[in-house]
Amino acid sequence: MNEHFAPEAAPTITITPVNAEDEAREVGVGPWPGPWPEGDHYDPELLAGGDRRNVVDRYRYWRREAIIADLDKVRHDFHVAVENWSHDFNIGSVVRTANAFGCAAVHIVGKRRWNRRGAMVTDRYQHVHHHSDTESLVAWAAERDLVLVGVDNLPGAVPLETYPLPRNAVLVFGQEGPGLSEEVRRVCAAVLSIAQFGSTRSINAGAAAAVAMHAWVRAHVFGQPAGTTTTPTP
Q: Which among 35, 109, 117, 122 is placed 20 to 30 Å from 22, CA to CA?
């Protein structure tokens, strides 16, 4: 995990951004105190001026390319795909969550342009691919032996909570409102629903993606497959 690259403790600075809507509080570090550390993964500009990016402390002062390369060593096997036929505002949130859960890559199907605001600049470190249509996504997945699994509360959908998610899954989500397109439903190995107990008919697409990604992590990282409550041995 390259712990030997972790920088020594540096002063922490709390900064209030100009646009409070982007993030209420942004924590960063100032210029590196004392002699600079050695290693080509460090960014001289950040060492000199401080690092106020939205990254975990482990990656403070690292070059963007070095962060991506290090993440590539530990990314998980699952992918996420989102339909984007009408510039869905949830895509940014999905990208941010995918980054947090170590998703191999996010795939955007349809329009190439998407609203990056919700990604909180995590798209700089997360692999994001574009597919012009469903056929392109299906072909890409087939070449890599990946299984498309839709997530949507549709009639006949199988509960996510009891479904054994494949390790090589591509979790596919429709856009807010219409949900998964009929074309995507036909090519998915299964369509899964998330259990709900309130009055609303559905939950936000970004929230649904987070629930599904966490289900994959529980099954394949923590050894807690669907339908079990086993606690992994440390």
A: 109
